[in-house]
Each structure stands twice: as structure tokens, then as C-alpha cells.
Design goal:
Elements lengths: L12 E4 L4 E3 L7 E6 L6 H12 L1 H6 L2 E7 L3 H11 L5 E3 L4 H5 L3 E4 L5 E4 L2 E5 L5 E6 L9 H12 L1
Parallel strand pairs: 3-4, 4-5
Antiparallel strand pairs: 1-2, 1-5, 3-8, 6-7, 8-9
Length: 157
């Protein structure tokens, strides 16, 4: 099911790499950038998330929290987060329910893998409404971070 701008963001409850349960509703009153990524330790995913790490002050200044989500286990995500010194939560969607709810799941992926998150970006405003939705079919493409930041500027103003 495709998520569209203007709809209520689907609620989720996932564990982060610190083994803490995180719910989308925990962030009510804050703007949230959800970044689904295919797999930890891969080149494009590492570059994407390190770019967010290096530019986190931009999102912080726009009153936004960033959450990374993949189907990797929370143990893999813990190691990935530590090795890359990432400064935002990584959530494990191991059961693929959240990726499915957001229309961000590859049924078939590289090397015969199935059920891997599609690289996707969603901006959810303080009331839980989707203000930006981008689901990429090509795993090597990156979300439009300029557009994401422009939307955050609009919802923060």
C-alpha cells in the first residue's frame, strides 16, 4: 500500500539497536524523518546514513528527529551504528511489518534475497501526518534530501 502526502502515518513499534522499544507515537509533537534503507554495511546505505550523520545539525535545526529503519536484526544494526558512529536511532523491522505498511518493501532483491526494505524517505509532521513520501525502486538511488529539508522548513515555519 502506497503512503501518500496528507494521510496519517501508520503507527509502528520497533526495537532500536539499544534494545529499546520505539513507537512513532513517542515522537508526537516533533517532526520525524523516516529513512528506510535496504541493508546495513552496504556501500550506498553506509554513504546515505553517514551523510545524515555528518549533516545532522541541519535536521536538528529544523526540529526534526531522524529514524533509520531496515530489516536487519537489532544486533546487526547495533554494530553498524557503532562502527559508523551514527548519531540517530536505527530500528529493526526484522518482521517486515513496518516496511510493508509504508509500501517500502522489495519482494525480490539482489542475490535472491526477499523482503528487503526499499530505500525510502518520509517526513511526518508534529501531528503524525505524512508531509513527504518518496519510495525508490532502484536501491542505488538516494532520496532527495534537498526536498526533504524544504518540506521540514515549511512544517517548522
Amino acid at each position: 500500500m502506497a503512503i501518500t502526502v496528507g494521510q496519517q502515518a501508520p503507527e509502528f513499534s520497533l526495537f532500536d539497536s539499544d534494545k529499546k522499544e520505539i513507537k512513532l507515537s513517542d515522537y508526537r509533537g516533533k517532526n520525524v524523518v523516516l529513512l528506510f534503507f535496504p541493508l546495513a554495511f552496504t556501500g550506498v546505505c553506509t554513504a546515505e546514513l553517514c551523510s545524515i550523520r555528518d549533516n545532522y545539525s541541519i535536521y536538528n535545526n529544523l526540529n526534526a528527529e531522524v529514524l533509520g529503519i531496515s530489516v536487519d536484526s537489532l544486533f546487526v544494526l547495533d554494530r553498524f551504528k557503532k562502527e559508523q558512529n551514527l548519531n540517530f536511532p536505527l530500528l529493526s523491522d526484522f518482521n517486515k511489518e513496518t516496511s510493508t505498511a509504508y509500501g517500502a518493501l522489495h519482494e525480490k532483491f539482489a542475490f535472491g534475497m526477499q523482503g528487503v526494505s526499499k530505500r525510502s524517505a518520509f517526513v511526518i509532521d508534529k501531528e503524525g501526518i505524512v508531509q513527504y513520501a518518496e519510495v525508490l525502486e532502484v536501491p542505488t538511488e538516494l532520496p532527495n534530501f534537498t526536498a526533504i529539508q524544504d518540506v521540514l522548513k515549511q512544517v517548522t515555519a
